[in-house]
Amino acid sequence: MEGNNMAETVMEQGNGTASEDMQENKTFTQEEVDNIVSSRLKREGAKYADYEELKAKASKFDEMEEANKSELQKANEKAAALQKQLDDMTKATELSNLRNKVSTDTGVPVALLTADTEDECKAQAEAILAFASTQKPSYPSVKDGGEVHNISTNKSNGQLFGEWLNEQLNS
Predict the structure, then answer these.
(1) Model confidence over 89-145: pLDDT tens digits?
(2) 44 three-class SS
(3) Is 55 helix (H, G, I), strand (E, B) or coil?
C-alpha cells in the first residue's frame, strides 16, 4: 500500500500538468480521430503547399544552368580554336619574316629555306651557297641542224626582220 500512496502523492502534487491529462482516460470516436488526423495533415500540408511549385522552379533552374554551362563550354571551345588559329598564324608570320631576313642576308631564295629557327636557316643557306659554288654551270646541247641563227652584225632589228621576211617570201 505504501507504493499506492506514493503514486497518489505524485498525482496530487502534479497540480494539473500533463501527468494528470495522461491519467485521464478519454476515448475518441472514429470521427473525432479522423478529424484530428485530417486537421493535422492539413496543417502539415499547408507548410509544404508550394512544394510542387518550388520543385518545378528548381528543375527549371537546373535546366537553365545546364544550358548556360553548355553555352559557356561552346564559347570556351570556340575561343580555344580561335586562339590556336591566331597562334598558328603568328608562328607562320614569324617564320616567314625570319626566312625573308636570312634570304636577304645570304642571297639564297626564300623558297629554298625550310628550317624553323634563324640559326638553322643560316646553316641551311650556307650549305646551299657552298653547294652552288662547287657546281659548274652546264647548258644542254641544242642540235638545230648546224645553222647559225644569231650573227652579230651592225644591222638594226628592222633590217634583220626585212631580210628574214624576204627569205621567207622567196622560198
Answers:
(1) 999 999 999 999 999 999 999 999 999 999 999 999 999 888 888 877 666 666 665
(2) helix
(3) helix
C-alpha cell at 75: 564559347
Answer yes or no: are the C-beta atoms of 102 and 128 closer than 8 Å: no
**pLDDT tens track for 42-75:** 888 788 778 888 889 999 998 888 888 888 888 8
In the Cβ-directed half-sphere of 29, how many Cα atoms lie within 13 Å?
Answer: 3
Q: How far is CA 151 from the centre of its chain?
A: 70
CA distance 41 to 48: 11
Helix (H, G, I), strand (E, B) or coil at 152: coil
For 14, residues 6+ apart whose C-beta sits below 8 A from its C-beta are 20
